[in-house]
């Protein structure tokens, strides 16, 4: 057994194993870099909320994709810590261990080689001494037989032969001793030391193989561990896709942009063959409706500035309801049969209209030039359509109520702190809280006044919307017939009539119909909804809900972003619409 051949082969094999481990670590490290870059590119920042379920589904897809990206980061982290770091540490340890084993083998081999050299030296010495002894013996015998040799020469030759024989005997004993030592060292080297070193190298290499095997397993197990969560992410994306309801989005769009305007009536025929006795309808382009006294109805001026063409390229929002209209007042339809027109219309109609505008609505606008700059945005949102105005006012009231509740809570907290300071003066001076309490009280008073202001505007908007409903229109038309019977000289458009009945309708409570619908909805949910996120209902009128909780849908979103729901264990209130997945009955 040659240590050189075996040691060289083992050295090459163990080095190859360590190189393979390092190559695998490099491979996994490149994989982690790919996973990290992939996760980074997959991640998206949170997007704004929307009322449309198709956008909510998109938000859910993005959320699930972010979770999916998070799992890719988990894969990269596990691969880095469990494979790259661990195997790199083991590789360094194995390198040191391998170096020690080979040093031990070389040291044992060196000792055996030294023993063998000593054996060879003693052997050569023994061989030389034997030849010298044999030669001395032959010389002594030759002299002994030579008759001419003296006795002294013979004795000297015999002494030399005996000396050489003695030296040969000592060399023989030394050679025998070194031979026994070498045989013992060689036996120990080949039967004890070499097997131990080989076993250590084998155990080291097998341990390295096991660690590499575990690294291979971790590579696949890490991917397998995230598969359930990735599957849930994909299921969430599929559920988001299934939650898209095109009808619901259409209804949301309708609620967002519902104006509350009446549909225009038919355009009447205007007889221009008789210039003085023209007849105009209330639905003619640019023709305003009037009141009983012939003046322009300020509430209706904004509706008659022009037709709102829905698909026009430059379709703009309607002007404020109280903005002036540049058009002539309608001549009386009965003027052709009952005499000349009213004296108020003897001047140029455009001049008359401008004068009337300056008299009636001048306080509401800064200048007539504002007409050229488009609609004026007013604080009471009168520049918006009726339905949108109502929603905006409700939104403002809810915002002010939330601010008011915060201020009230702050006031209560300051009062409690003041009481604590009064009871324990060492904690603070009660007078130091007075400015903050006064400021809070002032804010509460301001907010209450603003809420009252918005509530009055909301009541006005509700009353106008109620007065424009079909049942009220029928009531107006009946009263109009009665008025025409009493005074045939009056000619009014049905839409512009302000009767006593309509005034009574404006004075009725505006929430009567809403309260009746609310009471009816309590017993009959219109659908179900599931909470996609947790919501803490801290303000008045709201309720809390947990993620995944199923609720009864009592009232759809009216465009303000809130939906009225009922919990299964009781309790009813409003929650954000964007937090729900709604299914209508």
UniProtKB/TrEMBL annotation:
Keywords: Cell membrane, Coiled coil, Cytoplasm, Cytoskeleton, Endocytosis, Lipid-binding, Lysosome, Membrane, SH3 domain
Biased composition (Pro residues): 317-332
Residue ranges occupied by any SH3 domain in the UniProt entry: 524-585
Domain F-BAR: 1-249
Top-rank taxon: Eukaryota
Annotated GO MF terms: identical protein binding; lipid binding
Domain REM-1 as annotated: residue spans: 383-460
Main location: membrane
One matching Pfam family: FCH
Compositional bias of kind Polar residues: 274-286
Family annotation (Gene3D superfamilies): 6.10.140.470, Arfaptin homology (AH) domain/BAR domain, SH3 Domains
Subcellular location: Cell membrane; Cytoplasm, Cell cortex; Cytoplasm, Cytoskeleton; Lysosome
The keyword Membrane appears for this protein: yes
GO biological process: endocytosis; signal transduction
Comp. bias regions, Basic residues: 302-316
Coiled-coil blocks: 91-160, 390-417
One GO CC term on file: nucleoplasm
Region (Disordered): 265-347
InterPro entries attached to this UniProt entry: AH/BAR_dom_sf, F_BAR_dom, FCH_dom, HR1_CIP4_FNBP1L, HR1_rho-bd, HR1_TOCA, SH3-like_dom_sf, SH3_domain
Family: Belongs to the FNBP1 family.
Protein name: Thyroid hormone receptor interactor 10
High-level lineage: Eukaryota, Metazoa, Chordata, Craniata, Vertebrata
Gene that this polypeptide is encoded by: TRIP10
């Amino acid at each position: 057994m040659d240590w050189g051949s075996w040691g060289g082969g083992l050295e090459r094999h163990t080095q190859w194993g360590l190189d393979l481990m390092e190559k695998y670590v490099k491979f996994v490290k490149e994989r982690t870099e790919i996973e990290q870059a992939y996760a980074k590119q997959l991640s998206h920042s949170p997007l704004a909320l929307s009322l449309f379920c198709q956008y909510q589904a998109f938000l859910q897809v993005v959320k699930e994709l972010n979770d999916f990206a998070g799992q890719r980061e988990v894969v990269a982290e596990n691969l880095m810590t469990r494979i790259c770091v661990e195997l790199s540490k083991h590789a360094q340890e194995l390198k040191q261990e391998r170096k020690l084993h080979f040093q031990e083998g070389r040291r044992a081999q060196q000792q055996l080689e030294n023993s063998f050299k000593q054996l060879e030296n003693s052997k050569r010495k023994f061989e030389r001494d034997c030849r010298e002894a044999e030669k001395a013996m032959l010389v002594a015998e030759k002299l002994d037989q030579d008759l001419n040799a003296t006795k002294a020469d013979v004795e000297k030759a015999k002494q030399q032969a005996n000396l050489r024989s003695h030296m040969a005997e000592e060399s023989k004993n030394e050679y025998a001793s070194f031979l026994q030592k070498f045989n013992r060292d060689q036996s120990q080297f080949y039967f004890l030391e070499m097997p131990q070193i080989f076993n250590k190298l084998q155990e080291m290499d097998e341990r390295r193989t096991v660690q590499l095997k575990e690294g291979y397993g971790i590579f696949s197990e890490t991917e397998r561990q995230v598969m359930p969560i990735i599957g849930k992410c994909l299921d969430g994306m599929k559920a988001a896709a299934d939650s898209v309801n095109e009808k619901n989005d259409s209804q949301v769009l309708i609620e967002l942009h519902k104006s509350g305007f009446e549909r225009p009536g038919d355009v009447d025929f205007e007889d221009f063959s008789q210039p003085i006795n023209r007849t105009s309808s209330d639905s003619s382009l640019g023709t305003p409706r009037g009141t009983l006294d012939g003046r322009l109805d300020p509430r209706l001026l904004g509706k008659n500035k022009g037709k709102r063409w829905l698909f026009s390229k430059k379709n703009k929002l309607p002007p404020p309801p109280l903005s002036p209209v540049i058009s002539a007042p309608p001549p009386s339809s009965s003027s052709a049969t009952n005499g000349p027109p009213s004296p108020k219309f003897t001047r140029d109609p455009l001049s008359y209209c401008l004068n009337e505008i300056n008299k009636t609505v001048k306080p509401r606008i800064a200048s007539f030039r504002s007409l050229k700059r488009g609609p004026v945005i007013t604080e009471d949102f009168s520049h918006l359509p009726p339905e949108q105005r109502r929603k905006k006012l409700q939104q403002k009231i809810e915002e002010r109520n939330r601010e008011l509740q915060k201020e009230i809570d702050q006031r209560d907290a300051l009062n409690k702190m003041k009481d604590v300071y009064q009871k324990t003066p060492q904690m603070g001076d009660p007078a130091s809280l007075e400015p903050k309490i006064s400021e809070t009280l002032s804010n509460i008073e301001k907010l209450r006044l603003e809420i009252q202001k918005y509530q009055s505007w909301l009541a006005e908007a509700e009353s106008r919307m109620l007065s424009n409903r079909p049942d009220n229109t029928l009531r107006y038309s009946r009263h109009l017939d009665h008025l025409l019977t009493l005074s045939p000289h009056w000619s009014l458009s049905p839409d512009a009539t302000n009767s006593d009945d309509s005034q009574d309708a404006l004075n009725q409570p505006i929430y009567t119909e809403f309260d009746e619908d609310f009471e009816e909805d309590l017993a009959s949910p219109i659908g179900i909804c599931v909470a996609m996120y947790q919501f803490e209902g801290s303000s008045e009128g709201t309720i809390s809900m947990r993620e995944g909780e199923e609720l009864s849908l009592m009232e759809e979103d009216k465009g303000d972003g809130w939906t009225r729901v009922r919990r299964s264990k009781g309790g009813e209130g409003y929650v954000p619409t964007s937090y729900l997945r709604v299914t209508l009955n």
